[in-house]
């Protein structure tokens, strides 16, 4: 059964249960209300009769002369003498009076419903003044008359319920259709994602939580599309990066095998082959590292790191290249900063960014570390040409390298490590030096979130 049919069936069943329960409760309450109202009317009628009789007759002994008057009232009543426990007068026949007297206790003032055969009667007592006279006027109304009113009311109520239920079901169909239609359309869009038809994706008009789901599905499709494109680009670039040194090695190897090169060229060719093999080895090692970062995020050895000593170590490693290129490397750590992270991985990430800055700097590189709102910031800037707007969006993609780059994997590795440590890395233009600026922000404790194994 479709979701819309299930929702409509559930709503209709719930509506029937509620309306049936409400109808039964109202049906029983109506009779109680009618009985109370009838007793009130009988009391008013009886008070009027008593008032009239009191004006007409001054002596209680004369109450026996009111038969003709009461007969003219077209009421079902008894004139009861409590002192004598007898009915002095009734508008009903003597046989009916006797049956009433046998089936009911006239002396019980608390009983408001009397029985006569299979019929029941609502009663109301009105006492003559003075009370010592023991005279009571007992008025009766058949409960069947009230049931007729009850049934007539319930019949009209049933029509109201029926019309209301029909309107509710129509409204339910409209609302569920409005609710389910976006889900059905969303299902079709998910099929497009499954079939990788990202260019055919369409936005769906919806509201509330369904709109949030639709937005998430759309963003997911965009992310998947970008990921698949990046994977295609990755394999294309990877094949190109691996193919070039392999072709160089193959060319020199075949030339040496066939004796084409003389001794000098052979020695040169061997040197080139060794260089290209080392380059291949470096590319492969970095590809393996990236694969491990993606597939084994739980291998995380968190230690306490003194940031000043950490930066000093990076500067010491970079100093030979800095001196060789006649560059100025400035470092500054604001205060005493400690961070909890995987030192080996963090060293690899920061070193990659620093050596990237050295590669493109003209004269100066700056490393600035500071703490702000429980976050540690590493700002690495250079005075080179900077990063173009076109390259900013893909600077951290794999095998994307600028002029003078080596493997094109260094910044991709840095981003993977920083993100694995619950941090962020950004690239932009340096306002201070005019070149590129990379900012890495990490929490004070960069332990990965979730159920990940931490080696200690």
From TrEMBL:
Domain of life: Bacteria
Keyword Transmembrane attached: yes
InterPro entries xrefs: HATPase_C_sf (IPR036890), HATPase_dom (IPR003594), His_kinase_dom (IPR005467), HisK_dim/P_dom (IPR003661), HisK_dim/P_sf (IPR036097), HssS/ArlS-like (IPR050398), Sig_transdc_His_kin-like_C (IPR004358)
One Pfam family from the record: HATPase_c
Catalytic reactions on record: ATP + protein L-histidine = ADP + protein N-phospho-L-histidine
Alphabetical UniProt keywords: ATP-binding, Cell membrane, Kinase, Membrane, Nucleotide-binding, Phosphoprotein, Transferase, Transmembrane, Transmembrane helix, Two-component regulatory system
Sequence intervals crossing the membrane: 12-35, 153-175
The protein's name in its UniProt record: histidine kinase
Protein's organism: Oceanobacillus oncorhynchi
